[in-house]
Amino acid sequence: MLSALPPAVYVPRKGAVNALDDEDFVKTIRATGRKTLIVAGVWTDVCVMFPALDARWQGSRCTP
């Protein structure tokens, strides 16, 4: 699957419901310098919703 998106960065999760609660995950994402985050999960009301809302909140807060 990753070969279809060669420039994509895959960051394995450690099992936290909200991936953005994992400091290593956040550091890895920020190190890419990218502004677009694609979030996928098995349960969208949990696995996707919490990191998507947090990412949006963090991005909104940083925008002048």
What distance lies between the first and last C-alpha atoms, to the nearest angstrom? Answer: 37 Å
Q: How much strand content do the residues show?
A: under 5%
The biggest beta sheet reads: none
Number of domains: 1
Quaternary structure annotation: single chain
Count of DSSP helices?
2
Which stretches of 5+ consecutive residues score pLDDT under 50? 60-64
- Name the structural class: mainly alpha
Helix proportion:
40-55%
Textual characterization of the structure:
This protein is an all-alpha fold and 64 residues long. The chain has one domain. It is built from two helices and no strands. The protein is globular, with a radius of gyration of 12 Å.
